[in-house]
Design brief:
This protein is mainly beta and 310 residues long. 11% of the residues lie in helices and 53% in strands. A hairpin with a 2-residue loop joins strand 7 (166-168) and strand 8.
Length: 310
């Protein structure tokens, strides 16, 4: 076990690809329930010496990945200090995910195991209050009523397929589809998504449509360095069916007048700019959220991502 841990730490420090993602509803100028996300992802090179967890998958390439996700959730009215039983409670979210990949140029399999926490131990209140002070906004007043500490864990399996690039004169076009299942005490559900991507060079990476919460680790699979300026523009959609969503389910158990979450339909548009070992992405996400009562809301979030290769 110590040998495998040493291999993981060595790979993390000296090889691989990493990304840092910041999402915030302030980018679109509107307060939503999901108000901020901060994600770090590391993906190993394809020749990782870590044990082959997915040895039953007959694909030649093996990678491992690691991610840390931090999210902040609030009611829409952040000026009141009392509990609003008709809106989502304050909550902080912290998740650590370990992922194992087997892939080929057109397919990938991803197994994820995660642990984390919801509650004051995530220090979401300190982070949001500090950010609001930095940008000159009023501090949210209701963090004393946030959901208490709760340990979370889960397991996931994700399968993706990417077409070979299609040459359209000087532009390349490819499509990625994926299906993902999650089982855990924070979230249980299934996601089906697809993305279309236009690019200035033939892309080897997978453009998975992503998640409502957390970074999409598979975006780093087969990341390419480019020594000159290049670009890509992608459009993605996904359908996310929920069986369990802790933030709402726990609030209902505490007496909030909320409906259980049924499903989401999300859209994402992203502009990616490549220069040497770096990629900078600017993207917008819109999510239609449907409750069991068939009522729905729409929330929009903007994000900035930086990817670099060691």
């Amino acid at each position: 076990m110590k040998k495998y841990l040493l291999l993981l730490v060595t790979a993390f420090l000296y090889a691989g690809t990493a990304s840092l993602v910041l999402e915030n509803d302030a980018i679109v100028g509107k307060d939503n329930h999901y108000t901020n996300g901060l994600y770090y992802v590391w993906m190993s090179d394809k020749n990782t010496t870590f044990p082959d967890i997915l040895s039953f998958i007959p694909l030649e390439q093996k990678n491992i990945a690691f991610s840390i996700s931090h999210g902040i959730f609030t009611p829409k009215d952040k000026k009141i200090s009392t509990v609003d039983l008709d809106d989502l409670p304050y909550a902080g979210y912290l998740n650590i995910n370990f992922l194992f990949y087997k892939s080929s140029p057109n397919f990938f399999h991803e197994l994820g195991v995660s642990i984390g926490m919801v509650g004051p131990s995530t220090h979401a209140d300190d982070l949001q209050k500090g950010f609001h002070s930095l940008i000159g906004h009023d501090k949210p007043q209701g963090w004393d009523n946030q959901l208490g500490d709760h340990f979370i864990s889960g397991i996931s399996y994700n399968i993706g397929y990417k077409t070979n690039p299609i040459k359209l004169q000087k532009i390349n076009l490819d499509f990625t589809t994926n299906a993902k299942a999650d089982l855990g005490n924070f979230y249980t559900g299934i996601l089906i998504g697809g993305s279309a991507r236009l690019s200035s060079f033939p892309m080897k990476s997978f453009e998975s449509s992503g998640n409502f919460i957390g970074g999409s680790e598979s975006l780093l699979l087969n990341y390419q360095e480019k020594k000159d300026f290049n670009w890509a523009l992608s459009f993605g959609m996904y359908y996310n069916k929920f069986d369990k969503y802790y933030l709402i389910d726990e609030a209902i158990d505490k007496g909030y007048h909320l409906k259980k979450l049924d499903y989401m339909i999300g859209q994402k548009v992203s502009l990616d700019l490549y220069w040497y070992s770096f990629k900078t992405s600017i993207y917008l996400k819109a999510v239609d959220i449907y409750e069991k009562s068939l009522s729905s809301t729409n929330e929009k979030t903007g994000g900035v991502s930086i990817v670099w290769k060691f």
